[in-house]
Amino acid sequence: MATTTATPNHVKNLDLADQGRKRIEWANQSMPVLQSIRKEFIKNQPLKGIRIAACLHVTTETANLMITLRDGGADVALCASNPLSTQDDVAAALARDFSIQTYAIKGEDNDSYYSHIMSAIDHKPHFTMDDGCDLVTLLHTKRKDALAGVIAGTEETTTGVIRLRAMAKDGVLGYPVVAVNDALTKHMFDNRYGTGQSTIDGVVRCTNVLLAGAKFVVAGYGWCGRGLAMRARGMGAEVIVTEIDPTRALEAVMDGLRVMSMTEAAKIGDIFVTVTGNKSVIRQEHFELMKNGAIVANSGHFNVEIDIPALERISSSKRPTREFVEEYAMRDGRKIYLLGEGRLINLAAAEGHPASVMDMSFANQALAADYLVKNHGSLEKKVYSVPQDLDKRVAKLKLESMSIGIDRLTSEQEEYLASWSEGT
Questions:
Q1: Within 235-297, where are the H helices?
Q2: S-adenosyl-L-homocysteine hydrolase NAD binding domain spans which residues (predicted)?
């Protein structure tokens, strides 16, 4: 499975590679769909000669995607899509054992983060694989020299897709991009079940707080918010949802949850987690209302969902109290606790989504890459959804891996659904 060819890299410590490789192999056991695609890629070499620059969370699951792309013939360079999401042992193993250029260190500062993206762009990619659109943005701003060689790309997240659609609307997007996040087998499972479980994991790991009986405020009731609310409720928390969309708010009510404005929730909440994809969701006026000991975290892609500069302004002091926990002392004596610097708490303090759910997301990534390499010439410079046949193929492969069969339409049923003449 591995090679030992030296590659350019900037990782924390190559001596961590042995442990990283074991963890990559562990995750691979729970990714049967990606395994089957990898076998096809090895045989058919659909990405032969394609240079890929990937800006993703450097985790065990991502590692298996990178290995699949490499085994499909691609020349891959990987950088982190968030300063706190890298698993250093995984980065070391990719660089040392799998011949994948890797530029990622957990806790890297802002300059290093962007320097690593630049290193991935120096790879002169034909194809981009982004998680949040930072790599694509740099290609269209500071690194236009490398833009002409890019034929297509994919985007993993809700946040990134929002940015890409804005670029397409403004007529500046330089190549076609498939929004992997739009695949049903991505957002209905990864966002809901993955984010739900891994966010709770991150919050509990760094605080050891008891969720049972706590008032748990979920900001945003999209797929990530739905999953987070479901898991918090399952742990015994009293879940409160804040929303700006009336339909989603109504859905939360019908799901049996309390719904109110953030101003009202701020007064009573014990734990707050933002999952909206927007900025300044929790602001100064909310911090000023929070009770002593309130815990604030984010599981949206960027750390702008919490207005951290405002929290800094109104606090008299701050100090670390536990790993990934910063205590902010308010001038009136209250204390507010910020987790993971406001970054993705599920990756900052935990390991991110379980491999079995990322199996579907990264299967979509691999199949979308294959599709785009074959079809980019006929596509416009805009954002596309994952083709429905690929999406359904991922679902089918996942069911097969679980030894689950489903019904098929009979010829009579097919005829009935295709006709209009037969009524009551």
A1: 246-254, 262-268, 284-287
A2: 191-352
